[in-house]
Task: structure prediction
Amino acid sequence: MTNVIEIKNLSKSFGSHEVLRDVNFSVKKGEVVCLIGSSGSGKSTLLRCVNLLETPSGGNIIYNGENILDSKHNVEQYRTHLGMVFQQFNLFNNLNVIDNCTVGQQKVLKRSKAEAIEKAMKYLEVVGMAQYKNAKPRQLSGGQKQRVAIARALAMDPDVMLFDEPTSALDPEMVGEVLKVMRMLASQGNTMLIVTHEMEFAREVADRIVFMDKGVIVEEGHPDQVLVNPQHERTKEFLKRTLKS
Amino acid sequence: MNLETIISILQNSWPMFLRGAYMTLAIAVISTIIGAFIGFFIGIMHTIPMKSLSLKTVLLKIGNFLLTCYVEIFRGTPMIVQAMVVFYGLYAYGIELNRFVAALVVVGLNTGAYMAEIVRGGIVSVDKGQYEAAQAIGMNHVQTMIYVVLPQVARNILPATGNQLIMNIKDSAVLSVISVAELFFQTKSVGGANFKYAESFLIASIMYLIMTFTATRLLRVMERRLDGPNAYKVDKESEGQIQ
Ligand SMILES: Nc1ncnc2c1ncn2[C@@H]1O[C@H](COP(=O)(O)OP(=O)(O)O)[C@@H](O)[C@H]1O
Ligand SMILES: [Mg+2]
Result:
């Protein structure tokens, strides 16, 4: 299968602080990749580099065979192909649920209002939030907000969905409803790159697990290999620490 | 001071009071709107991200410097002095401004200087995550501002804008120095004719109070309108659980 995204020799520094060092990996079409690693290891930075919310200090990002760090490349257009789900949801506070899911379609993709609404409702139904279409973000629980955020991203028909710890800001009883939606998306063949601390979930949905530590990829492979039979000392330590808590 | 005197002043001079109040209100409302536009313009200019050094960013820096000068000058001098400088200054150059227009210019520019800071603060205080989410779905800076950031700023600065309106209702009294026929000026004329200054200005103060109080209430209503209903309607037709 073809690579949708290919990261080559990616590095990122904030001032003199080197956060990512020579990162290489790729995501194939239809693949679900889970990115794990301890806090501060650079997972968010990597994800944010992929959709250029952070500008990489070095390396290449190849999307469908094109180098998007090429100065000629249109960043906004590239981003419409990636759906991003944030830890803090980041729903547009001024818009209700349905408008959150249509504004990008109408203003960026230039879809008609009717088409945008139809698409939005379709995905709001998928995440089980259609009945709340008139609610404002502040009237929703964390889990509901995150499901709307997922629908907002899906409505743009992205090639890849990026998730940055989508359940970390949720109360424990709401984690399940979001993971349920993500499981379903994974089973439907969506291409997903997920940063998560939910090991059980990662093992279940991931085609591949990537373990990061201190800005480098230490180990990657099938979940059964990386999670059950890790090869590297640092992976073993991390798993011992996370599985204990 | 007694009630009879007040009533007789009102009977004789109510049209002057009313015209004065009308003028005061017109100046306050229109210049607050002008000021809000100026404030948004400057606030937006001051928050345009400057990534690379180019001719555009150099021009932007020069423009922003000039705008900052304007803000400092109008915030750092009394409005009564600004009124004199604008009106007589232009007069010296042979430009005789209509007094009402002069009033709008002075109060509008004054309000704009204050609103610039209010809007800038409002833009900066919008959560970084809102910008990132907008960028992540492919919006450029202008789209992000128009569809996501500025609507939130407008809502957040509404109380401060209301404050400006109330200040303008009161402070427009200083425009009497350039003979704008607002409420203070009219009251002075009434008092000068009947020699009952105390009673006349008591009437004026009650009229000011009615205007400011009404403005406060109306703004509250507007805020609540903008926030929408507290509860949302669950749409029964599309009710469904996660499939
Ligand atoms: N904007 C930034 N400026 C400076 N340092 C940053 C910035 N963002 C992240 N970092 C640093 O980069 C490192 C990795 O952060 P992050 O990617 O958020 O890790 P993770 O998501 O794995 O917890 C941390 O040491 C963090 O302090
Ligand atoms: Mg993180």
Remarks:
- The first strand of chain A starts at residue 3 and ends at 14.
- The beta strands of chain A are 3-14, 17-28, 32-36, 58-63, 66-67, 82-85, 160-164, 192-195, 208-213, 216-221.
- Chain A touches chain B through 47 residues (CB under 8 Å).
